[in-house]
Specification:
about 230 residues; mainly alpha; 9 helices
């Protein structure tokens, strides 16, 4: 079999019959996921991201669906899915898919999915690029406007992606303003503190670099021979 065939076989092993006992085969399922992840990691290390991207996308979709009909109280398969999602983000950086399509997939996963896997947008930023981030922002706005009143799942999805989009934009004022829209927990307040602290840290580093360059320039001018 070709390398792509091997990955297809491994990804197909992640199908899950919803009629199966929810407690049956969890360990075997996790082993199948780990086998695919190990194979993909080796291919990524060898520079074969192009062959890996579609297999990992398929794996994420299948594992997301499988967890709806599986008792994963131990969290083992959920952990495997988080790892698969990170691998997919890494592969997309090395072999970027269509940026707008990737953005729409991330939005659908968040708005239409069961609540997992966690989307860590920062991992996908290099693959999304400016076009993908713009498409994702537009998709979040569109879905938010179309959401049914009182739809808790849609509200959470929109809030999460808006906060992450603001964070990866690098605009701290925008990030803090969006975080402040939902001050209902100590964790949210802590996130604002962290964002402001990081901004002050970056400014401090910039001022240190600037001061160092200014000092070097001053010393350099003192070393110039007089006319």
């Amino acid at each position: 079999m070709t390398r792509g065939d091997d990955l297809t076989v491994l990804a197909n092993a992640l199908r899950r019959d919803r009629r199966r006992d929810p407690r049956a085969g969890r360990r075997e399922y996790s082993q199948a996921a780990l086998e695919l992840a190990d194979c993909c990691e080796r291919l990524l290390a060898d520079g074969n991201a192009g062959a890996v991207v579609p297999a990992l996308r398929k794996a994420v979709d299948r594992m997301t669906s499988a967890l709806m009909y599986m008792d994963d109280s131990s969290g083992i398969v959920g952990t495997d899915l988080r790892h698969m999602m990170s691998l997919y983000a890494r592969a997309c950086v090395d072999a970027p898919p269509d940026q707008a399509g990737l953005a729409r997939w991330l939005a659908a996963l968040s708005f239409d999915g069961p609540g997992w896997p966690e989307i860590r947008l920062a991992e996908f930023v290099p693959a999304l690029g400016a076009r993908g981030l713009s498409e994702l922002s537009a998709e979040v706005a569109r879905r938010s406007a179309a959401a049914e009143p009182g739809s808790w799942g849609q509200l959470v999805a929109a809030r999460d992606l808006r906060e992450q989009l603001a964070e990866v934009s690098g605009d701290v004022d925008r990030h803090v303003a969006i975080l402040a829209e939902n001050l209902n927990s100590a964790r949210q307040c802590q996130r604002i503190v962290v964002a402001l602290r990081d901004q002050l840290k970056r400014r401090s580093q910039y001022m240190s670099i600037f001061a160092g360059k200014t000092e070097c320039a001053r010393q350099g001018s003192n070393l110039r021979p007089s006319a």
